[in-house]
Design goal:
This protein has ten helices and five strands, in the order H-H-E-E-H-H-H-E-H-H-E-E-H-H-H. The chain has three domains: 99 residues, Orthogonal Bundle (Multidrug-efflux Transporter Regulator, Chain: A, Domain 2), CATH 1.10.1660.10; 61 residues; 40 residues. Helix 3 runs parallel beside helix 5 and helix 5 packs across helix 10. It is mainly α and 241 residues long. The strands form two sheets. It has a three-stranded antiparallel β-sheet. Helix content is 64%, strand content 6%.
Amino acid sequence: MTTDTEEPTLTVDELAARAGVTVRTIRFYSTRGLLPPPVIGPRRVGHYGLGHLSRLALIEELQHQGMTLSAIERYLEQLPADLSAHDLAIHRALVASWAPDSAEEATRTELERRAGRTLSEEDIDRLAAMGALERAAGQVYRLDPGLLRLGVQLLDVPIAHETILAARTVLLEHTRSAAHELTRLFRDEVWNPYRERESDPEHVAAMKSLSAHMQPMVVQALVTAFQRSLKEELRAAFTAE
């Protein structure tokens, strides 16, 4: 059994087979800086280790969330340079447990069945602009299950479409900021102390379990705080009027 402290022993072909990717993908990731260079051994053969394998798994998890390679590159640049394969496995566990529902594909008939109504081309365009769906090939659509129901409800709201999109932009901007600060807090106060207990064989499982239990609490806290803030802002605005 290998450990993080052992010398890298995997060839690029062995790494590709273990990670379930092609050698071409590994070389491409290396040129983009997503993977650190291999250790060059005898006969100028590059050798890879568990750190490379864990980083490839993390990249795959981030891609499953819909992140582009450019976004993944920026994401990885923010990680500490001294992360071990064990740390990367923990990070992947955290990312996976907080990942949103994956997109689902549906035909036009299935889309309208799930929407509970007939949808015009204008309705489809509005749902796409709200991020509730994307047009795929032919009459196939890629749906965001969490947004579709909300998007359909907004179709009948007597508010200009541009106003809805502007509100969505505001929400995305501020929720991203809140997510960034919460992630920083979680990393500094929870993840880093756990890193000091690497001798614990159930380290990764414990972190994933803790993260999964925190998610609904954090979401509920955000919703409650937003509801209270919005109520106060609306009261102040209309009282002033």
